[in-house]
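Next comes a concrete protein, fold included:
___
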Amino acid sequence: MVLPAPAASAFADAVAAVIAVSMAVRGRFPMVTAPVWEVVSAVSRGLLLAPSWPLPVR
């Protein structure tokens, strides 16, 4: 798998990373038929859109 090239903005980089994660999961586990948003939610433990994400290191 080839990593995505840098995009024009941080938001575009984040979207590219989310899509790359979903494609990697589907490549490794072809039986996964969940939509992209469900895969990303599971990988990020549902914290991707949380206001305090990422959690502070203790």
In short: The radius of gyration is 13 Å. The helical segments are 10-28, 36-43.
